[in-house]
Specification:
Layout lengths: L5 E9 L5 E10 L4 E5 L6 H8 L7 E6 L2 E2 L5 H7 E4 L12 H11 L4 H14 L4 H4 L9 H13 L5 E5 L7 H13 L3 E5 L3 H7 L2 E6 L2 E7 H5 L2 H6 L20 H8 L2
Parallel strand pairs: 3-8, 3-9, 6-7, 7-8
Antiparallel strand pairs: 1-2, 1-4, 4-5, 9-10
Helix pairs in contact: 3-4, 3-6, 4-6
Length: 264
């Protein structure tokens, strides 16, 4: 396991129409980290995610995954190292059955026979799907939460060292969202989670990176940044709902909120 599985130095990227998406990004993801990547729409989150496994290539600066720079000759190895779970699982599930979706990636890695069966079983069980119950089903007939689990199983079956998730709680009902959070808590893998769900970030990720207009404006302790209403407002973000619900215990409110309430 690499101590710093992802390292980014001075990364910048602009789209063909001239829109600057990323500016001078410096970032290290350490092994075992569970990191939230947050920012308003248009802040550069998705563009940054797509650099982690070479969907986009650096125009300037450097992205290193494991020991490999992200460039065309290394893309197969980079994509084995970093597994990306898309926001919409329908973009990731395309085979006739769940089992074929889960085994698709490891088969492309060359696995066959018992090794393929064992790895795919393990990946499905890791996300709470019983292979005997779900393997023969068509993903189109599953719930949104089940589809997300299948997509994650397909990525985990490739045994990446880093799991990157784009808006994992989007379109999930409350129960499915809770199950997803519990699942991500259990997974013993480095995780980078791009999300608008700041309550999920607060519960799941000790570290948060805030992007604004293509630049990192905060990289540190999640509770510290998500309890700062002025900073969040400055970067078009809202407080986590758990900090504003009237039935929250007062002692759980951030100091800044308590000071405002008390007129301090």
């Amino acid at each position: 396991m690499h101590h710093n599985p992802i390292s980014i130095k001075n990364l910048s990227y602009s789209y063909p129409d001239g829109t600057t998406a990323l500016q001078s990004i410096y970032l290290d993801i350490r092994a075992g980290d569970r990191v939230a990547l947050v920012g308003a729409n248009g802040s550069g989150k998705s563009t940054l995610l797509m650099h982690f496994n070479g969907i986009l290539l650096p125009q300037s600066g450097e992205v290193v995954v494991g020991d490999l720079s992200v460039e065309p000759r290394h893309l197969k190895a980079v994509r084995n190292f970093v597994g990306l779970v898309f926001q919409n699982p329908d973009d990731q599930l395309f085979m006739p059955t769940v089992w074929e979706d889960v085994t698709f990636g490891p088969m492309n890695q060359g696995l066959r026979g018992e090794a393929l069966r064992h790895r795919s079983h393990h990946a499905m069980e890791a996300v709470g799907l019983e292979p005997e119950l779900y393997g023969s089903r068509n993903a189109n007939n599953l719930s949104g939460g089940e589809k997300k689990r299948v997509a994650m199983a397909g990525v985990l079956a490739m045994q990446p060292q880093v799991l990157v998730l784009d808006e994992p709680s989007a379109q999930l009902d409350p129960r499915s969202r809770r199950q997803l959070i519990q699942l991500l808590h259990r997974l013993p893998i480095t995780q980078l989670i791009a999300t608008h769900d700041l309550d999920l970030a607060l519960e799941l990720c000790p570290r948060t990176i805030v992007l604004s207009h293509g630049q990192i404006v905060f990289d540190g302790i999640t509770e510290q940044v998500l309890s700062n209403p002025d900073f969040l407002d400055q970067h078009a973000l809202e407080m986590p709902l758990c900090y504003s619900r009237p039935y929250c215990l007062l002692e759980h409110q951030p100091r800044a909120i308590a000071a405002r309430r008390d007129g301090g």
